[in-house]
Amino acid sequence: MKTYIFSSVILMLTLFGALNTQAQQIDNAKNNYVVLTKKVPQLQPILLTAESLKAEDGEAFGDFQVIICGKEIGDITDTEKISDFIIKAEKAGVQLIACGFSLNKFKVDKTKVPKEIEVVENGILYNFQLQKKGYKSISL
């Protein structure tokens, strides 16, 4: 019985120690951000926010990604709607991401997605994965 209790205590201490080590491996020296949006026009205030955070954070500013998904995903193939935002995003150091699931669901031709926009298989999953890495997240 004593051996069982002692073994259980050792196992619990080992597990908690491993969790603490894993949490310390996340780099909190940089502020990383991810925004999930459903409308291309929302890129205007998102990019202004990115620029302000970059100025405010200084050296602590890390990565800023915007994931576009939803039924209006086709707007990213409209050069009149997206071109200026692509230019502004590049200047601000913001990475634009398209949700492949949304592209498929709403039958958007992936060949018409601008080369500056990365396509991920599932935008919502990608958002959660970034959050697990410590990214600050908001959805609009």
UniProtKB/TrEMBL annotation:
Protein's recorded name: DsrE/DsrF-like family protein
Q: Which organism is it from?
A: Galbibacter orientalis DSM 19592
Keywords annotated in UniProt: Signal
Signal sequence range: 1-23
Question: Which domain of life does this protein belong to?
Answer: Bacteria
